[in-house]
Input
Amino acid sequence: MAFQNETLKKQYWRDNLRIIGWLLAVWAFVSFGCGIIFAEALNAIHIGGYPLGFWFAQQGSILTFVVLIFVYAKLMDRLDRKYGVQETEDAK
Amino acid sequence: MDQQTLIYIVVGASFALYLGIAIYCKAGSTREFYVASKGVHPVANGMATAADWMSAASFISMAGLIAFLGYGGSVFLMGWTGGFVLLAMLLAPYLRKFGKFTVPEFLGDRYYSNTARVIGVICLILASLTYVIGQMTGTGVAFSRFLEVSYEMGLSIGMLIVFFYAVMGGMKGITYTQIAQYCVMITAYTVPAVFISLQMTGWALPQIGLGSTLTEQGTFVLDRLDQVLNELGFAEYVAVNEHNRVNMFFYTLSLMIGTAGLPHVIIRFFTVPTVKAARSSAGWALVFIAILYTTAPTVGAMARLNLMETFGTTEATEMVYEERPQWVKNWEQTGLIEFTDKDNDGTITYSSNEEENEVTELNRDIIVLANPEIAMLPDWVIAIVAAGGIASALSTAAGLLLAISSAVSHDLLKGVFKPDISEKSELMAGRISMAASIAVAGYLGFNPPGFAAGTVALAFGLAAASLFPALMFGIFYKKMNKEGAIAGMLAGLTVNLLYVFQHKGIMFVASTSFLGDLDPNWFFGISPNAFGAVGAIVNFIVAMAVCKMTPEPPANIQHIVDDVRVPVGSSLASGGH
Output
């Protein structure tokens, strides 16, 4: 293993799970939350011609998904470096 | 030059491009054939994944579904994109780290059992084969509508093209063809959308156009749409249906889990060079998918509005049949639109009241197919839309066929029956099983089974209920053993199959109660779909229960899991090939 000891290995995995947990919470919030459960209430608010709940269901959630994956990639990249387990150029 | 000639030239040119790529990208090794040598750039893989993922259903049917379901259509938009978040965070990087060629191979190694591998192959083939039927019929339909050839002829030409580049180039050929196909289909989708948005709102960006005001009336597009629908007695477009909230929740969740568990999408992430690349590549894939998916609501809403204004929204403005626009005449010939002047007054009444309604047939696919003509775009745009429709079906079919053939040649032949097969023979076997898969898929395209309407639903259900939980346990739960995983997969698979077969007759009744205003002949049954999430839960519970009662997995397997969880590290997992 690339880790110095078992503790670091466990910590790396726990940090990884924490990142996934937070990001999936946002994922669920924008789609199931804003797009479905609270859609009706949010529809009272308008941005331009879009009722907000409708906007989340057909535009906002998708845009958020895209951002989430890139944020995840960025955070994991940083985490890999922190623990010294990032891939070198020739790692294939 | 007349329109038909132009379509032939554009579609022909796109085929020449695909064949050119096939010749250039001939696969020389199994590594090239199965995973394109793991050398595909993350952005390129993202583009290929987008083409792999977006099928004829996304391209031709989705905007139409949204147009007629309004807010209810959001399940497809969120479900088919949200799955990529799960894929990116829960599966893709770890499976890439594992570093093998196929999805069943991971199951076999992780659960130290050829039984698990074979069950994986069965789930994969069931899911992919049911999915590919839709692509084959899509190819036939696209050809026959645009090129004025018969369905059978269109299907044969499509099969021949796929045969050429998939058998020769394997994953390598498919990857680069899919990139070209993505470019064709996204142009075909966005150009008419930009034009229609400009015409109606003055905004070039369709995503903004849908939220802005109509240039003629000064009212918001969505407000005007709701107003017209109200006048004709249809359900409001943006309104949330209270009763459907729970069902909508499960339906969206099922599509998301199913998306993440579909093998033909997962294997695309085996082609990138690193774990880091697998993560960002999923993001790029979703960027390219989102371009189409955020445009679709605009196409749906605006085309629906256009359609209703053409037919007339009040008694005084009703369309006089003899003065109907040219595009209506064109599509009447295909049978996708039909009018019956019930009261013989020479005008056409469009209404939610079945007794009065004189628009007796209005196929949802018309929303995308006739869009360029409705917006009065030049002939070359129509030609590109034709090429785009065909590209969307071919690219998805090729990806599915590769998933099937690699499962047969790599997992069944090399993995189980003949482990000592040489590299060269395995490559040959890969090509032969690819050719055989195309033949089987073609046969199913010529003779679509009676339950064809529910087949895509079945694929999502199977992926969600059988593959996704087993893969997730394999990575996130170190103590999951072979007994648990196998029992879980079988339980998920059985529950789903039983449910679908039992419901194939009454599926459409159930769908009506779900989203309110579904047309009975839409391609996607709802209840089997929403059931994918239920199947996944059954799988999780059974797997956990059986796991608790049986011995822990061996230590070396727990090491594999440790290795999969970190981007670097010498291990069994990355050594293999």
